[in-house]
Amino acid sequence: MSFFSFTLIFAMAALSLCLIMTGIRFAMGPSLPDRITAFDLFVANVIGIVAIYTELTGNEDFIDVAIILSLFGFLGSISFAYYLMKSTR
């Protein structure tokens, strides 16, 4: 195993730990803006894990999955922000 592969595995483990902590923050968030931020970070962590997994396996089809996840994350954030804006009026 090369140093690069070891580094990718370490990065995937670190992102998995961040994903768990983000899930806890999402569940315990005291307010809706905190949960929206946690949702954005959750999606970003998943995209990072998919990108690392793509590099480890050499299967480039997963990049499409990461692009679609980023689109869904963006649309989810926009919809949450729109709901928050409408509910404060």
Please tag this protein with its features.
single chain; 89 residues; mainly alpha
In words, what does this structure look like?
With 89 residues, this protein is mainly α. It is built from three helices and no strands. Helix 1 packs antiparallel against helix 2. The chain is elongated. The mean pLDDT is 91.
- How large, in whole angstroms, is the Cα Rg? 16 Å
Order of helices and strands: HHH
Mean pLDDT: 91
Query: What would you call the structural class?
Result: mainly alpha
Assembly state here? single chain
| Intertermini distance | 57 Å
How much beta, percentage-wise?
under 5%
Count up the helices. 3
| Shape field | elongated
Number of strands: 0
Condensed summary:
The protein is mainly alpha-helical and 89 residues long. It is 89% helix and 0% strand. Helix 1 packs antiparallel against helix 2 and helix 2 runs antiparallel to helix 3.
Topology of helices and strands:
Elements: H1 3-28, H2 32-57, H3 62-88
Helix pairs in contact: 1-2, 2-3
